[in-house]
Structure formats: structure tokens, C-alpha cells
Amino acid sequence: MTVDVVILTITDEQLSVLLIRRGGAPYQNHWALPGGFKHPDETLDQAARRELREEAGIDAPAHLAQLQAYGDPGRDQRTNVVSIAYLAVVRDLAAPAPGGDATEAKVFPVSQSLAARVRLAFDHKRILKDAVDRVGAELEHSGLATAFVGPTFTLSELRSVYETVWGTPLDAANFRRSLISSDARFVESTGQTAPPGPEGGRPPELFRSTPQWNTGSPVKRSRKKGDDDPGR
Amino acid sequence: MTVDVVILTITDEQLSVLLIRRGGAPYQNHWALPGGFKHPDETLDQAARRELREEAGIDAPAHLAQLQAYGDPGRDQRTNVVSIAYLAVVRDLAAPAPGGDATEAKVFPVSQSLAARVRLAFDHKRILKDAVDRVGAELEHSGLATAFVGPTFTLSELRSVYETVWGTPLDAANFRRSLISSDARFVESTGQTAPPGPEGGRPPELFRSTPQWNTGSPVKRSRKKGDDDPGR
DNA sequence: GTAATAGTGTCTATTAGACATTATCCC
DNA sequence: GGGATAATGTCTAATAGACACTATTAC
Q1: Per-residue pLDDT in tens (0 to 9) along chain A, 232 residues
Q2: pTM of this prediction?
Q3: Which nucleotides of C are covered by protein (CB under 7 A)?
Q4: Would you say the C-beta of A226 is within 7 Å of strand D?
Q5: Measured between alpha carbons, how far apart are the two ends of chain A, in Å?
Q6: DSSP letters of B21-69?
């Protein structure tokens, strides 16, 4: 019984994942998801948090949720082990700190990690793929997007999360309306504004996520002409 | 590593679950979900199917999907074990056939099984609760409803599934349009009609589910006045 | 002033939801 | 015929989506 954690963040307008490399063992040339054995006296969530802390140096992910269990025989050459995959979403991942088993930790763009030529350890590529699909689907029905940004954020920042994950441009005006109006109510204005960027522009309003951010369906993914559905 | 299966069906207009009783062990006075240890040479899905067959006598569930893993320490008095919960949906559950460890198998209405006075073994009540929530949510976004009915079905039958699971009456006319029109396309007419019931009435059209029944969002759950949201 | 970004207003096509009407069976 | 169930038609309010316009900053 192991727990593997898919740690996602956005760097340079790209959805990215933290991968580690371990010494020894098979797959020592492969990158892998951080993870390890669950201790008998901890919950699954606690095990995921511990692995986050030990192997990636992350203490407080903005979002942590169980994804799925993987138990195909042969998914791990060494032992027959079932793994519970977790999804963690964090905001800053500038300097990943490897620890525990991990000798190296690095952030890769998801698109690159899923490329055919790249080899990840075990069935971690499949897990990563599933995690990314899940995030895309969940953005449509929850406030998960706010986990990618800071405690306060502008709507442009939040919209950028959607656009990055979905790979689709969104209309800024309609995006704003979707979030503000209706019963969604998963962001609220702080009343403050942020300073504009170096390019100038009107100072944006600062928002925070509301406690009930995990209900409702804030934004709809547009499915229009020529939209090659990547599946769910 | 065990696999537990929540087997849901609809009997007498009620969402119902199959529970079993085992001899010996603790909790021998409690009803429990069918399940057991995963074998090293099988996948999780195969383990779930095997338990379905061995303990409940079910060979081909209309729907089988993984739900979630449960691993709180203390959830099982005897051993510290992580359990992967599965959801199975079947159509007929008239004569449940206990086998293997199970000495008794019976179908209970979900509402009754979740009542405060009823005690289920381990954390099975929580698992059942989670499963029911999931089904309710998934009806809104997939064709899962068709798993509750036969290979061909009338729209009244299908609508009844939604109404039973959600506990809300749906407008027959709008229901039909939701399914037929738009891009959902998760049911199609067989061109045939079924004989009307003993009360008479126009003979209903027979439908079948399409292969891509697990995409799209066929019907929306109406959230109107005084709708006490049960949460997701 | 221009360029850039944020936010508002408005129009149209689509859709949900309510409800009336027609169709086809049983008795 | 009357009663029951299935299917179709129609209207209204709400919403998605497109896009023009105003507001506030940097330069």
C-alpha cells in the first residue's frame, strides 16, 4: 500500500508537475511521482501529506484530494503493490526541495512529461494523465482553479488558470460575469485593487475564494466548432 | 488490501443496496458490503468482479467503477487494512445468492440502510453514503442511469431512475427533449414500441443506450425554490 | 496623446422550465 | 365514449457567447 502524489502547479503559463528521481532500485533512470508506503497509524490523507513534506518539501498544499487506486499486477516490478494516487495543487514551486528517498526533484511541463519519448517509472504516466484529465473536468464544476493562485488574486490570474489547463482562450467579460453573478459565488471581492503591471492598465480588483468554493459550476468549457474533445 | 462493492439497484421505486452477513468474526450481527482481499495476480477491477460473483452471485453488472479508497486506521478492528470501494449497478436483484463467506444476502432500501438506528460493519455506512452521493452527481453528467434499466427501455423507465435517485419529479416533455436533442446523444430509438401497461395508454417508444453513453450531460438536476441542497 | 489592461453594457441564439395540446392505447 | 400514458408544440425567462464600449493606469 503506497501513496503517490501528483503535484501540479502552473509555471510560465504551463501546467506543470513535480517529479523526483531516487537512488538505487530499478527505474533509477526514470522520473517518478513522489510517494511511499502508508504507515499503519496514519490516514491516507496524512500519508499523502507526509510524502509531500518528506520528498518534495511541501508543507501546505492549497488543495489535496484523493484521485484513484491503481492495482494492476506488474505495475511495480519489485513488489505487487496497490497505490492510491493523490492530487496536490500548489501555487509556488520555484525551488523544489528533494528529501527522503528523493535525490533530485524538478518541475516539468505536463505536456512534456506526457510526451511519447519520455519514460516515467511504474505506471506513473497513466496516473499523471488521469490526474490532468480530472483537473480539467473539475475546473468546470468546482473552484479548484483558486488553488493554483494566491490567497487573493485578480480575475485575469484566475482566468489564466482556466485557459492554461483547458488550452482555450476565454472571453474576459463573460468569465467575470460567470464568477460574479449566478449562484456560484465561489469568489468574492476584497474591495482592494492590485497595482497594474509594468505595461500599465487599469488596476485590477482583488478577489478571494469563498469558503464554499467547492460547490456550483462557475465556468463552462466552451465546446465549439472544431473542438477536438480531449475526452474526460 | 481489500475491495468492497456497493451494489445498487432500484426496487419498488427505491434506490436499494445489497448487503450481506457473514458468520464468525466481529460484526457478525452487522450487515456489510460484499468484499474481500485482492489477489496478487488480479487487477482491482477483476477483484471487484470476483467478489461480486462469489459473495453476491452477480456475474455481469451493467456498470462497475472504482469509487474511492478508505484507509483510516481503526476502520477495521481486526487488521489495519485499506479498502478500495467499487460501485456496481445492476438491473435485476430479485433473488440475491449469498456465497463464499456470506451466509445471508439481502436488498435494503438505501434510505433505510443509512438511517441512524441501523448499524453497518466497519465504515461501510460512510462508503454507502459516498456511493449514493456519487451516483446522484454522475446522473447529471453521464448515462449511468441506463445501467439501472434493461438493454432496451422506455423514457418513462429512464426518467423514473432519475426521479428515484434524485427524489425530484421531472417534467416528461423536457426530459425527452434533453435526451433526444442536443449533442448528448446517449440514447437512441430502436424504432420499436413496447406494449402499454394494464392501464392502457399510448405504446411507448423503446430506446437503447449508445456506446458513447458516458459522455455529455443529458439531464440537469433542477435546483429550484426551497431546494435544500444535499451537497455533493 | 497612445498602448495596455480591467471592467461594463448590450445584443442574439440557445436552452431550461412550465404547461397546453395531440396521439394511441385500455376499458 | 372516459381514463391513462406517451409524445409534440409553444411560450417565457435565463443563460452562453460575441463583441462594442468605458475606465484607469504607464509611457
Answers
A1: 999 999 999 999 999 999 999 887 667 789 999 999 999 999 999 999 999 999 999 999 999 999 999 999 988 766 778 999 999 999 988 777 777 788 899 999 999 999 999 999 889 999 999 999 999 999 988 899 999 999 999 999 999 999 999 999 999 999 999 998 766 678 999 999 999 989 989 999 999 998 765 544 556 676 443 333 333 3
A2: 0.91
A3: 3-10, 15-20, 23-27
A4: no
A5: 27
A6: EESSSTTTTSBB--EEEPPTTS-HHHHHHHHHHHHH-----SEEEEEEE
